[in-house]
Design brief:
mainly alpha
């Protein structure tokens, strides 16, 4: 696989992870409670959104990218070991 394909795949996985993490976070009962979806907006707290949303977005973007990079590194290392066995 080419280096450009690996980079593009990593970016796609990171984007999908960030969007997925925000969507899952947005649908939780805890987040909906903080946004005021309770009776007469009781418990509305936008401070929780301002502190949690950036962390959820970053974690959703960073974790898949790290896993992708680790997998690419391990596969590249494995291929190098296999090819060096044939040349010996």
């Amino acid at each position: 696989m080419s280096r450009d394909a690996m980079t593009g795949g990593g970016c796609a996985v990171s984007f999908a992870g960030a969007v997925g993490a925000v969507v899952v976070w947005w649908q939780t009962a805890r987040t909906q409670r903080h946004l005021g979806n309770e009776f007469e907006n009781n418990g509305q707290d936008f401070g929780a959104v301002l502190t949690e949303l950036p962390l959820v977005f970053l974690a959703g973007a960073v974790v898949p990218a790290v896993v992708w990079g680790l997998g690419a590194w391990l596969l590249g290392r494995r291929r190098r070991q296999e090819s060096s066995q044939f040349h010996a």
